[in-house]
Design goal:
CATH architecture of chain A: Clam
Radius of gyration of chain B: 23 Å
CATH topology of chain B: Porin
Structural class of chain B: mainly beta
Distance between the termini of chain A: 38 Å
Strand order of the largest sheet of chain A: 6-5-4-3-2-1-13-12-11-10-9-8-7
Largest sheet of chain A: 13 strands, antiparallel
Number of strands of chain B: 23
Oligomer: heterodimer
Largest sheet of chain B: 18 strands, antiparallel, barrel
Number of domains of chain A: 1
Order of helices and strands of chain B: HEEHEEEHEEEEEEEEEEEEEHEEEEE
């Protein structure tokens, strides 16, 4: 009999870490910033790299639906900091083959973004200082996909029950965003953000993001289904992540013009 | 021969691939109906009330080569895209254009090759091109076809290499493809042989360089990033893609003079937006001193541009282009008394505004060209509505204007149109 070092050991360590995480939280040792940092890392920085297929279904107020299907590749440059993203569009058919690279910069500097339009063989640099615009015409915002820098908000633990922390986040620069604050509900066990509720300048709830399904993938608790709702427009988008994998061995060169023009075949989830 | 060879190669690869296919590649594309009505009648052209009425059917596929052959080990991918066009403007004549048919593969870790018919684009301009001398279709641009059709494909071999110090693109184009320019039947334009704005009566013709070794075209780009800034150097050896030189005045023949171009560009984030700058030196090889009145002179071109996202899905951009005909004194000295002549300098400004509405399903766009030196311009406005993932509706106008009949936009002034396109994608 051989001993399986890979999966079992990893799970053991994850359990160990989770155990300490839980007991630490139980002991109220974590500051609110530490909780938010853990949640942020959980959402955006798990593993050295990762890839997934995302299927996004947008439903408008009349019940009409639109579908987006993309492959997302992600590489962490530094935990909680810079990242690189590669996005390849499979659907809708009129944008099939389009690809997109983001060099995400933590700490104030605008992200670098390039878009490749295969029909014209055109690499376009995207001027995109507004991170609170819709991602690919869905209810999700660009910032929901690539993450909002922790430093942009002040965080306050407003409540906590047996299972969740409730954190109130207030933007430092109120004029830069459309919300006045948002509440985040974070699972105490694994620090997965389960719900975010955004309140407008008049204090009315107008936008929610909700984790609908969390799965353990290679020992990483991963949101595999989530919903963003726009309560004013009465529309919502449900995103399902499939074929999620971490630590697959993505390299820095994939996130360059070379692969923007010639998408990396081995990573595309056709 | 080369073209035939490439076609055979592509066909062979496709056959091999199909034979080995476990699952057949999926086909996508669209069907589109388009109509462009003239804003005012133009009695010079074939039809006086409209300049576009057509149905288009595009089919495309992309296929990763399977199996154990070399192409599959090299991540080989076949791409095919063809358009069937039923053009009512020319009496419902049908035509088929292969827009892309190429095989792309990576024979070594840091080398990519793309061989076959392909669209080629580089440079930093927005509708302005200095170092991108690959063929374009300005007729499609003026009548309101999709932006895709501004670019024409080339039959080419593209070799890309990625050594540590910089990335290199080297393109060989054996067969010359010229720009598609107004010829009078669909769009009236300034024809110096007719001494004015001409339509159907224009009978000038442009002689293309023959398919032979010394007429091969080469294009080179060396580029890299410096942090968030991109820098590139360009070289092109080939022909002016528009016919600007006279071969035989008596027989109203033009030709595409030999051209070398050297250039550079930078593109970088700046003050919350994206800025770009590009320069190019065009050396007219058949008239290097500018003393031949029949052949286009050497030129200098430079531009700067800036684009910014103002939030709420509103983007604005602007560019400035400067062009100077070199050896202008020699050009003036060589002119004959009744020759039409062009200014030494041209200044051109462009402006773009794009605003998205309704969760990015409605796009309003306005693009303006304006030349204070030529006293002409061209406004392009459009509204595109993604009705669903399949249906798309685009309406727009093309308004070229100008005081002078010999300037780029001024000569197009009778071709103002309003168009509508409906497309179903699958």
């Amino acid at each position: 009999m051989t001993f399986n070092m890979g999966g079992d050991m990893k799970k053991f360590f994850v359990l160990l870490v989770m155990f300490f995480g839980v007991s630490a939280a139980w002991a109220q040792d974590l500051t609110v910033d530490e909780i938010v940092a853990k949640a942020n890392n959980r959402s955006y920085y798990q593993g050295k790299d990762g890839n997934a297929k995302a299927t996004m279904v947008v439903t408008d107020a009349q019940g009409r639906t639109r579908q987006r299907q993309l492959t997302i590749l992600k590489l962490n440059i530094q935990e909680g900091g810079d990242q690189k993203y590669f996005v390849y569009f499979h659907k809708p058919n009129d944008v099939k083959g389009m690809s997109y690279i983001v060099w995400k910069h933590a700490g104030g500097k605008d992200d670098d973004r390039w878009l490749y339009l295969p029909a014209m063989d055109l690499v376009r640099r995207i001027a995109a200082s507004d991170k609170r615009s819709s991602f690919a015409g869905t209810t999700f915002l660009y910032e929901d996909i690539s993450g909002r820098s922790m430093d942009l908000d002040t965080h306050e633990l407003s409540a906590s029950d047996a299972a969740h922390y409730i954190i109130k986040n207030v933007p430092k620069d109120a004029a830069s965003v459309e919300f006045s604050y948002y509440m985040m509900k974070i699972d105490k066990n694994n620090f997965v953000p389960m719900m975010a509720e955004y309140y407008d300048k008049s204090g009315k709830l107008y936008r929610t993001i909700e984790a609908l399904e969390v799965k353990d993938i290679q020992g990483y608790p991963t949101v595999t289904k989530m919903k963003a709702a726009d309560l004013n427009a009465n529309s919502h988008t449900i995103t399902e992540f499939s074929e999620v994998a971490y630590d697959v061995g993505l390299t820095d060169d994939i996130f360059t013009e070379r692969f923007l023009r010639n998408p990396p075949q081995q990573w595309l989830k056709e | 021969m080369r073209r035939a060879f490439l076609t055979v190669l592509a066909f062979f690869s496709l056959t091999v691939a199909c034979a080995q296919a476990v699952d057949l590649p999926s086909w996508h594309g669209f069907v589109e109906q388009a109509y462009g009505g003239r804003v005012s009648r133009d009695s010079l052209t074939k039809h006086q009330n409209y300049n576009m009425l057509e149905q288009r059917w595009q089919l495309k596929t992309r296929y990763r080569i399977p199996g154990e052959n070399a192409l599959s080990r090299w991540n080989g991918v076949l791409t095919y895209k063809g358009d069937f066009l039923l053009d009512e403007y020319f009496g419902a004549s049908g035509s088929y254009e292969v827009r892309e048919c190429h095989v792309a593969f990576s024979p070594a870790g840091a080398v990519d090759i793309k061989a076959g018919r392909q669209v080629l684009t580089w440079g930093t301009g927005d509708y302005l091109f200095i170092n991108d001398l690959f063929p374009k279709d300005y007729v499609s641009f003026y009548i309101g076809r999709d932006d895709e059709y501004l670019k024409k494909p080339s039959d080419a071999l593209r070799v890309s290499a990625y050594p540590k110090i910089a990335n290199i693109d080297f393109v060989v184009i054996p067969h010359f493809t010229p720009n598609t320019m107004p010829e009078g039947d669909r769009l009236s334009f300034f024809d110096s042989f007719q001494g004015g704005i001409a339509g159907r009566e224009s009978d000038r013709n442009a002689v293309k360089p023959a398919l032979q070794a010394e007429n091969m075209q080469y294009a080179l780009r060396v580029y890299r990033t410096f942090g968030s800034m991109e820098g590139a150097l360009y070289y092109y050896r080939g022909f002016d893609p528009s016919p600007r030189s006279y071969l035989d005045e008596a027989n109203r023949q033009l030709f595409y003079e030999r051209l070398d171009a050297y250039g550079a560009s930078v593109r970088s984030p700046f003050a919350g937006g994206i800025s770009h700058a590009e320069v190019g030196y065009y050396r007219s090889r058949q008239d290097p001193n500018g003393t031949n009145r029949l052949v286009e002179n050497s030129m200098f071109k430079g531009m700067v541009g800036y684009e910014k996202d103002l939030g709420h899905d509103l983007k604005v951009g602007g560019q400035y282009l400067y062009e100077q005909k070199l050896d202008y004194a020699e050009y003036q000295a060589a002119l004959l008394p009744y020759d039409y002549f062009w200014d030494e300098r041209r200044h051109l400004l462009t402006q773009r505004i794009t605003k998205l509405y309704k969760n990015q399903t409605v796009m309003l766009g306005l693009f303006n060209f304006w030349s204070p030196s030529d006293r002409d311009g061209y406004a392009r406005a459009s509204c595109a509505y993604d009705m669903s993932d399949q249906w798309k509706l685009v309406v727009g106008v093309n308004i070229p204007w100008g005081e002078d009949m010999i300037t780029d936009f001024g000569m197009m002034a009778k071709n103002k149109n309003a168009f509508v396109r409906v497309r179903y994608s699958f």
